[in-house]
Amino acid sequence: xxxxxxxxxxxxxxFLATVSLATxxxxxxxxxxxxxxxFRVSPIGPLRTFGTVYVEIVRNTPLTLMFFFWVFxxxxxxxxxxxxxxxxxxxxxxxxxxxxxxxxxxGVNSVGIGQAEAARSIGLGFxxxxxxxxxxxxxxxxxxxxxxxxxxxxxxxxxxxxxxYAEMVAISKRLTNLHPTDxxxxxxxIGMMYLLITIPLGILAARIERRVAFAR
Amino acid sequence: xxxxxxxxxxxxxxxxxxxxxxxGDGDDVASVDPGEFAAGSTMAELAEAGTITIGTKxxxxxxxxxxxSGNPEGFxxxxxxxxxxxxGIAPENITWVETVSANREQYIEDGSVDLVIxxxxxxxxxxxxxxxxxxxxxxxxxxxxxxxxxxxxxPDDLAGKNVCSVEGSTPAANIAENYxxxxxxxxxxxxxxxxxxxxxxxxxxTTDNVILAGYVAESDGEFMVVGDQFTEEPYxxxxxxxxxxxxxxxxxxxEASFEDGRWLDAWNATAGTVxxxxxxxxxxxx
Lengths: 216, 286
Prior knowledge:
The structure holds two protein chains of two kinds. By secondary structure, chain A is mainly alpha-helical. Chain A has helices at 2-6, 8-41, 45-59, 63-73, 85-110, 113-121, 126-156, 168-178, 183-212. The longest helix of chain B has 17 residues, at 244-260.
């Protein structure tokens, strides 16, 4: 317990590192995931194919492999990112975006086909139909699965511990080695810190869900 | 061989025992009369048997690495041969057993090995289970850089540099505490640091010089170890706890080998190809 208080500066640093990694990759994943979802429902064949192939490959391979690729493989191909934050953001965003895409696509599919047909009949193009009519409705249905994806993202940031990014799990490893007798407290303390991020996310999700709820 | 002659001519024992002290590479071993040692001592038993079982690492380049021939090679192995030679045991009569960090004490305690020379750091916790002769070498934390790097020559040059090590390790904690201006990049294994070092994502890899030397040996000239080591890890020879006679005798052998150059020859032929020449340590006769 004492260790946890004495070393709180270090733990707080790890907490902020986890939060900033989750926030930045979360935003990027939401943006890129939305683009991917648009690809997958677009009328243009090659884009649909790209979206499908991307999602099937990225979603079905381990996140650790994605990290490995950006930390150890890519530098030998000539692109050398700084170790730590950069490759972690890239790996997490690319990985999470495939799940965001699928969550959004399920939302899009839940919007009645009549909506799109009505939009087309009043002369809206594909882009307008998607952004003005379908996506705003799709978002609402997609909120619960999207929050699940973001919660998973917060926990997935721990993979970065093994790839030169000093987030909470890396810090807990360091502290456990320095203070072996306090391992249990450190372990539970770090667990609590994760709950501190993920539980409010869940509550936020419930709020938004209630606010945007609509009758079909 | 010589031993057969020896059985007939015990009178020459004293003269030949002296000759044993100068056996340079350990390949031609002079005979030793078991009676020279105190009756019932470990030395007498081993010399009588003419064989010895030594535990060493099989996976540590330059210290104890199993060669294609099946026998391990390295500095620890050479030290084992020096000690065996003093007992009149030729290298081919040494049985090498692989010991890893987790089973060294146990192998000594249950008699699976007569002694352990396996990059074995002397510390008080281990002294409660076994006894240590030596040290015969002081290892320590050091730095490894690319061979064409000239701006890092020691730990004082680390400010602002990316330094790679393992999360939770003692070397990493040491850097964080004593060289806070260095930017630590911490992975799960030291081998993870090698690619980033090649790619220039980190400038330095730091841990014990013995581990670094292994990477240098396998890197084909790509890496080098720079600067003096800045911590001390004394490597000892583990023997059965409280076998004080054997321990003190090994200490005598070590001191003799420091004196007459056998120790340095063994070093230069193995780890000395990569690491700088060490000064002979002072054995600790606790």
